[in-house]
Amino acid sequence: MAALAVSIMVGTPPALADGTDAADLSSTDADYAAGRKAIDARNWSEAVQRLERAGVRNPDNADLQNYLGYAYRNLGRYEPAFTHYKRALALDSRHRGAHEYIGEAYLQVGDLASAERHLAALRDICLLPCEELDDLQKAVTAYRARKSPR
Where are the alpha helices (DSSP H) in the chain? Predict the structure, then answer.
């Protein structure tokens, strides 16, 4: 809180907690922009292809790594999905989207304990309510309901 108060007092914006770069790659990298559009269209193969190309030029962009993980996960390719989510979190340990998406991926492969670790991380990161925390909490709750004996 003190850092936020200081940043407000001196006019410097606080760092974005979801890893979003101030200069969005969509305006500077055509493959990244096309990959994002492919995700919106749920064209996962095209998204992977275009985002992988953009990743060659921008390997240290946490958002790009997160989107690659998301596209791979939606193709059912969990190994590369986890690789890209982990890379996003290595680049930005407070990336809310990567925590949410990797937590959901862990649920899809039946690893509740790992999903709960990312849920706990989001609880620490989201000082105010945030969509990523809410979404992962709902997914964990639904997972538990499906797995509990009736």
Answer: 2-10, 30-40, 44-57, 62-74, 78-91, 96-108, 112-125, 131-147
